[in-house]
TrEMBL record, chain B:
It is found in: Cell membrane; Endomembrane system. Keywords: ATP synthesis, Cell membrane, CF(0), Coiled coil, Hydrogen ion transport, Ion transport, Membrane, Transmembrane, Transmembrane helix, Transport. Belongs to the ATPase B chain family. Residues 54-81 form a coiled coil. The chain crosses the membrane at residues 15-34. Component of the F(0) channel, it forms part of the peripheral stalk, linking F(1) to F(0). The b'-subunit is a diverged and duplicated form of b found in plants and photosynthetic bacteria. F(1)F(0) ATP synthase produces ATP from ADP in the presence of a proton or sodium gradient. F-type ATPases consist of two structural domains, F(1) containing the extramembraneous catalytic core and F(0) containing the membrane proton channel, linked together by a central stalk and a peripheral stalk. During catalysis, ATP synthesis in the catalytic domain of F(1) is coupled via a rotary mechanism of the central stalk subunits to proton translocation. This is ATP synthase subunit b. It is a single-pass membrane protein. One of its GO terms (molecular function) is proton-transporting ATPase activity, rotational mechanism. InterPro entries: ATP_synth_b/b'su_bac/chlpt, ATP_synthase_B_chain. F-type ATPases have 2 components, F(1) - the catalytic core - and F(0) - the membrane proton channel. F(1) has five subunits: alpha(3), beta(3), gamma(1), delta(1), epsilon(1). F(0) has three main subunits: a(1), b(2) and c(10-14). The alpha and beta chains form an alternating ring which encloses part of the gamma chain. F(1) is attached to F(0) by a central stalk formed by the gamma and epsilon chains, while a peripheral stalk is formed by the delta and b chains. One of its GO terms (cellular component) is plasma membrane. It comes from Novosphingobium hassiacum.
């Protein structure tokens, strides 16, 4: 946290820094330094690996851990079943990876690890990350749609029962709303994560400044801000789950368009 | 906002490492572990469904067995009732025959007895006449001094007896 003249910079937490002197790493001229963002993606991966591996004991009567893992996979499976139907099972690895990665990245970014000197970094608060995930989902939708229906896939842009004279107007509207999907998908997650973290940072700035400014301001500004922070932390945990769910749900809805075409 | 300020410098690293780690998650967890977890869940669901089906089948079999047992019991009961009815009928017939024989014998004895009684009565009546005639002769000879022949006395007694 950069504290210049007693002020807290609320967006400093999103700064990407190269770690372990890898800032000169490059492939084909593209810099691929191992950054704090990459580190937290790696931590997300490891935590997720440990979590799922711990629940893969394949016992007939599941223990608590296995129950938790089965609850998570069953949740994504139900999501696919409800939105796509039986054909949704084949997307389970992708949608599960998507949901679990976003959920764990969001949650890890909220962990109060600064208390022990670590600085959590929320990889999903960068649109370079959420954008890639959104483009992947969109590319899969396009690929499945065209592979399964060929050029008939374009009938997706003409809803059922559209009167013929309306088609020239409806088609571009539907096409635009379809093309906007990856942007809305990626930006929604990025904005939700960033807004929550900025809000928490701004409020913590109030707490620090208010505490330094004397007892009057402390009780007037710092204490209410701190109480608000507690509430918003709980809200952010909810948002972390909801945004992961929304991302997975919308991916399912779009996949359903590609799979079943209306 | 670092997301935009650092975009040009960091986008390649961000995309690269995301693809690396998301790839690990997708291939190792998504394709490696999740299908196993789902298979475990499906196996469990299948086993529960199979057990339930087996229990249901066992129940149906027990019901069928009970039904068969009831049908058999009913048939046997009906057969027993028929046997009892036949035995009752036979017994009734035998009783009837015995009764008829006994009744015939009793009737015969009765008739013979009645005949004997009648004969005895007639004989007794005849003797009464004789005794009365003798008594009349005796009375007449003692009181009137008349000697009445036996035939006359007898006729007189008969007439008195007849008149009653």
């Amino acid at each position: 946290m950069r504290v210049a003249e007693g002020k807290v910079d609320p967006v400093h937490q999103f700064t990407i820094e190269s770690l372990f002197g890898t800032d000169h790493w490059a492939i084909g001229g593209y810099n691929i330094a191992f950054t704090n963002s990459a580190l937290w993606m790696a931590i997300t991966t490891v935590v997720l690996l440990v979590f799922v591996a711990g629940g893969s004991k394949r016992e007939l009567v599941p223990g608590r851990w296995q129950m938790a893992v089965e609850g998570l996979t069953g949740f994504v499976d139900n999501l696919l079943m409800a939105n796509i139907g039986k054909a949704g099972r084949k997307y389970l690895p992708y949608v599960f990876s998507l949901f679990a990665f976003i959920l764990f990245a969001n949650m890890l970014g909220l962990m109060p690890l600064a208390l022990i000197g670590l600085h959590p970094f929320t990889a999903t608060s960068h649109f370079t990350v959420t954008g890639v995930l959104a483009i992947m989902s969109f590319a899969i939708v396009l690929g499945v749609g065209f592979a399964k229906h060929g050029f008939h896939f374009f009938s997706l842009f003409v809803p059922h029962g559209t009167p013929v004279p309306m088609i020239p107007i409806i088609f571009p509207i539907e096409l635009i709303s379809f093309m906007v999907r990856p942007f809305s998908l990626g930006l929604r997650l990025f904005v939700a994560m960033m807004a929550g973290h900025v809000l928490l940072e701004v409020l913590s700035g109030f707490v620090i400044s208010g505490t330094n400014a004397g007892p009057g301001i402390f009780f007037l500004a710092a204490v209410p801000s701190f109480l608000l922070m507690i509430g918003i932390c709980a809200l952010e945990l909810l948002v972390a789950g909801i945004q992961a769910y929304v991302f997975a749900l919308l991916t399912c809805v779009y996949l359903n368009d590609a799979e079943n075409l209306h | 906002m670092p997301q935009i300020e650092q975009l040009a410098a960091t986008y390649a690293s961000q995309v690269f490492w995301l693809l690396v780690f998301f790839g690990i998650i997708f291939f190792v967890i998504g394709r490696g572990m999740v299908p196993k977890v789902m298979a475990t869940m499906d196996d469990r669901d299948k086993q529960i469904a199979d057990d339930l089906a087996a229990a249901e089948a066992a129940r149906a079999a027990a019901d069928a067995e009970e039904e068969a047992w009831r049908v058999q019991a009913n048939a046997q009961r009906a057969k027993a009732q028929a046997l009892i009815a036949a035995a009752k009928l036979d017994a009734a017939k035998a009783t009837e025959a015995t009764l008829a024989v006994a009744s015939a014998r009793i009737d015969e004895t009765l008739t013979a007895a009645e005949t004997r009684i009648e004969a005895a009565r007639v004989a007794a009546l005849g003797e009464v006449e004789g005794v009365a005639a003798e008594a009349a002769q005796d009375i007449a000879s003692r009181i009137a001094g008349l000697t009445i022949p036996a035939d006359e006395a007898q006729a007189a007694v008969k007439g008195v007896l007849a008149h009653g």
